[in-house]
Amino acid sequence: QSALTQPRSVSGSPGQSVTISCTGTSSDVGGYNYVSWYQQLPGKAPKLIIYDVSKRPSGVPDRFSGSKSGNTASLTISGLQADDEADYYCCSYSGSHPNWMFGGGTKLTVL
Amino acid sequence: EVQLVESGGGLVQPGGSLRLSCAASGFTFSNFWMHWVRQAPGRGLVWVSRVNSDESSKDHTTYADSVKGRFTISRDNAKNMVFLQMNSLRAEDTAVYYCATGTGYEYDYWGQGTLVTVSS
Question: B62 vs A98: CB contact, 8 Å cut-off?
């Protein structure tokens, strides 16, 4: 089963908003509200920033928001800051094997 | 404070074996599913395996197709440890291996990772 589909890269200027998409199928993204998003800085472990499609863990700024429509989930980062520059990964629970699937990752560049 | 600390990585020849360990603290380990996720150099995250909180339950372990039959996940709830026994290692298994867990279907907590290099 293929990974979830994310754009390889996105970019934006400080203060702007960017949206990263994550496309799956009705067996994963579309079938469950268990989409999560992770931020990974170079050489570091991933950090959870969104879970259950749109919930934010404590301590994550409200500039980060998540949504879902059909088989596509989205992460929006508003008010871009330089330290948002990182790789972002989506992940979804799936009702079929393998039960957890990651997207290929999106590199965010803050111009 | 929740901590996950992996160990056991290193350089191994193709066809060899390695056992990874992950020591957990700061939460009720026996209540949580535990996962291994890997990341090949310069590549994305890939789910590898999961073990349920209760090892006596049916289908308490599951594996990605790429490692099924070669890797075995296990846990010791008395020692708050999870393990990944990796046999018949291939070059494509080269990666940083993370143990991870969460309260739901997400990964709230990650270790720092341990690097496995399969090369002759």
Answer: yes
Task: Name the residue facing B47 among A46, A100, A104 (closest C-beta).
Answer: A100
- Give the residue from A25, A4, A14 showing the smallest Cα distance to A75: A4
What does the alpha-carbon distance between residue B99 and residue B94 come to, in Å, rounded to a whole number? 16
Residue B57, pLDDT > 70, answer no
Return the number of other C-beta atoms located less than 10 Å from residue A72's C-beta: 17
| Chain B residue closest in CA terms to A2 | B46
B115 close to A (CB below 8 A): no
pLDDT in tens, B93-112: 999 999 999 988 999 999 99
pLDDT tens digits, residue range A41-80?
A: 999 999 999 999 999 999 999 999 999 999 999 999 999 9
A98 with B64: Cβ contact below 8 A: yes
Cβ atoms of A21 and A29 closer than 8 Å: no
